[in-house]
Amino acid sequence: MKNISNKLIYTLLIVIASFTSFSLLAHGVDDATKQFLEANQGSAIFPFIYIGAKHMLTGYDHLLFLVGVVFFLFRSKDVLLYVSLFTLGHSITLLYGVFGNIAINPYIIDAIIGLSVVYKGFDNLGGFQRLFNYQPNTKIAVCIFGLFHGFGLATKIQEFQLPTDGLITNIISFNIGVEIGQFLALAMVLIVLNLWRRHSSYSGFAIMTNTALMSAGLMLIGLQLTGYFVN
Question: In the chain, fewer beta carbons within 10 Å around the N or the C end?
Answer without folding.
Answer: N
